[in-house]
Task: inverse folding
């Protein structure tokens, strides 16, 4: 490799004004979006979903079914967008790729000993390579939270940089697992490390830990993206994941992104939702807006 | 002389007493005297109530018949214990003292009547069916799901009790719109439910304007059935039209004789159940006789 190796610079991260963040979120959540704007927002959110299945009980058939759902969200309602991607374990990437052939839907794979990230660097690289060789368009990695808490930031940084290199053309999403980080300051620090180490996206959570994505933690990460953009002119994507299951909350996320980063981020190139049940709630809201009738889960495919 | 405090009566959703999300209220009057500040519920309150009712359906329909019976009996006990308040409210809403006492007494008795049916109605409505193949074939009732109820307008308590109780006997959950002009007992009855082991969400009680809520109560796709207890033809038609969307079961019941024993009736339970027929394979019935 002739590329210059990225070196961890240990730049200090700004401290986060917790009260300010929470106050900002309060103002976002007390707003209401209605009518055409709401429908636009709902469809946009639908198009930003990484439809996810990350269960020990996943089977090929389950993945195929999910891919089918991704392409046919609700055929009774024409002209709906599709989701952005399907997110699976690396061993299902080929299955998903085949099932999604001919569509624009990407395949994302979690890698690097997801969800704990507790393994050797070799294993993590192999895991990434498995995903990429199978054709993953995107890789979702987890950072080593243990190392991060021990203050070994350079280790975390180098690991992300190495995985990024292993990804090749695949876009890399770096999961910080904010539920395990403990404070906004640490979330900010981890965001800065991930961004500087070459992440294309930063992502809140694996979905296996509670709390998963929250609005405040997302705002902290968006601020990190903003500061980096002002400094370098490089756009970084954002993906809140886990716990976003209703349409209203999804719209609030969109508001937050729009008002923190601007409309350049309001597309699935730069913003994603990691979710599974969100899709159906969005669909139910869209149909409700169209027909004026409150909907029931009974009439939407489960996955 | 002290100024009287007019109570704000809140609605009952998912075992909690929120104010309406719309922030609106109305003050019904009897003989020019305000009854209280009553929530004017919006369609969003209704939507939230359906979510609560759907959430409660699994556990309530799965509770044993014995347990449901105990819970219903407990409602009657609690109602009996708060008799004085209900009588006072009924008088405030225009009843005479003797009418009010009768209304509460019949209401308590009616709940106890239905409490007794919890573990019996399935026997009455089930059947073992003769079939020509080697199957044990039987039919048994199961609760329909979430039920919208519009209670009688002219009574405050007896109509409410008589419409809610037979619906929840079998394990249904419900969203109830109370009498608009006489809503006091509905909210106080919610307080009784809340303190009598009825799981939150099984009964949700809204107050407000029928015209505003009717079409949503009838069209909501997550509502499985509708009990209409007022004899207004125009409203019936609107309910029937909207209910077509998801083929809701609509029951229109006459409550003009609500005090008569015709309202103590197991068929009122049967109105809100679905019959499930099961074909259970058995060994071939040979010359030896029955395969049961």
Result:
């Amino acid at each position: 490799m002739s590329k210059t190796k990225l070196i961890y610079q240990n730049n200090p991260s700004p401290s986060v004004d917790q009260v300010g963040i929470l106050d900002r979120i309060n103002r976002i959540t007390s707003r209401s979006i209605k009518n055409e704007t709401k429908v636009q927002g709902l469809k946009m959110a639908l198009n930003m979903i990484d439809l996810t299945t990350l269960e020990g009980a996943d089977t090929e058939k389950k993945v195929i079914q999910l891919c089918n759902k991704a392409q046919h969200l609700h055929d009774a309602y024409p002209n709906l967008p599709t989701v952005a991607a399907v997110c699976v374990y690396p061993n299902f990437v080929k299955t998903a790729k085949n099932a999604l052939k001919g569509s624009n839907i990407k395949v994302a794979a979690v890698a690097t000993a997801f969800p704990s990230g507790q393994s050797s660097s070799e294993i993590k690289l192999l895991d990434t390579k498995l995903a990429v060789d199978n054709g993953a368009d995107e890789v979702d990695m987890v950072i080593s939270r243990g190392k991060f808490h021990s203050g070994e930031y350079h280790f975390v940084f180098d690991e992300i940089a190495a995985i990024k290199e292993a990804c090749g053309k695949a876009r890399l999403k770096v999961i910080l697992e904010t539920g395990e980080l403990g404070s906004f300051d640490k979330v900010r620090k981890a965001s800065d490390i991930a961004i500087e180490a070459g992440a294309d996206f930063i992502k809140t959570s694996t979905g296996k830990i509670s709390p998963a994505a929250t609005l405040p933690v997302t705002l902290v990460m968006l601020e990190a993206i903003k500061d980096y953009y002002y400094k370098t002119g490089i756009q970084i994507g954002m993906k809140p994941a886990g716990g976003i299951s209703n349409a209203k909350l999804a719209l609030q996320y969109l508001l937050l992104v729009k008002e923190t980063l601007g409309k350049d981020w309001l597309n699935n190139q730069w913003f994603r939702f990691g979710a599974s049940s969100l899709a159906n709630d969005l669909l139910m809201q869209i149909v409700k807006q169209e027909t004026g009738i409150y909907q029931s889960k009974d009439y939407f495919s489960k996955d | 002389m002290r100024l009287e405090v007019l109570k704000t009566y809140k609605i009952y959703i998912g075992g909690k007493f929120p104010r309406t999300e719309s922030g609106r209220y109305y003050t019904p009057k009897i003989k020019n005297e305000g009854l209280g500040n009553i929530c004017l519920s919006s369609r969003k309150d209704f939507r939230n109530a359906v979510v609560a009712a759907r959430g409660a359906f699994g556990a309530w329909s799965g509770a044993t018949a014995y347990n449901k019976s105990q819970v219903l009996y407990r409602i009657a006990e609690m109602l009996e214990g708060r008799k004085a308040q209900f009588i006072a409210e009924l008088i405030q809403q225009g009843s005479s003292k003797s009418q009010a006492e009768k209304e509460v007494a019949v209401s308590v008795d009616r709940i106890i009547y239905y409490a007794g049916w919890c573990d019996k109605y399935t026997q009455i409505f089930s059947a073992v069916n003769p079939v020509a193949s080697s199957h044990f074939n039987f039919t048994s009732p199961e609760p329909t799901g979430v039920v919208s109820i519009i209670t009688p307008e002219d009574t405050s308590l007896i109509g409410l009790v008589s419409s809610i109780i037979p619906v929840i006997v079998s394990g249904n959950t419900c969203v109830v719109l109370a009498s608009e002009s006489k809503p006091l007992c509905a909210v106080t009855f919610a307080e009784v439910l809340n303190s009598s082991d009825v799981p939150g969400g099984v009964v949700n009680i809204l107050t407000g304007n029928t015209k505003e809520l009717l079409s949503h109560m009838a069209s909501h796709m997550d509502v499985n059935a509708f009990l209409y207890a007022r004899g207004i033809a125009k409203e019936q038609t609107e309910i029937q039209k909207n209910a077509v969307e998801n083929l809701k079961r609509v029951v229109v019941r006459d409550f003009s004789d609500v005090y008569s024993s015709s309202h103590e009736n197991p068929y009122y339970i049967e109105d809100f159940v679905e019959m499930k027929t099961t074909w259970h394979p058995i060994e071939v019935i040979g010359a030896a006789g029955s395969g049961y």
About this structure: The first strand of chain B starts at residue 8 and ends at 9. Residues 60 and 268 of chain B are 19 Å apart (CA to CA). The domain at 9-257+265-279 of chain B is CATH 3.40.605.10 (Aldehyde Dehydrogenase; Chain A, domain 1).
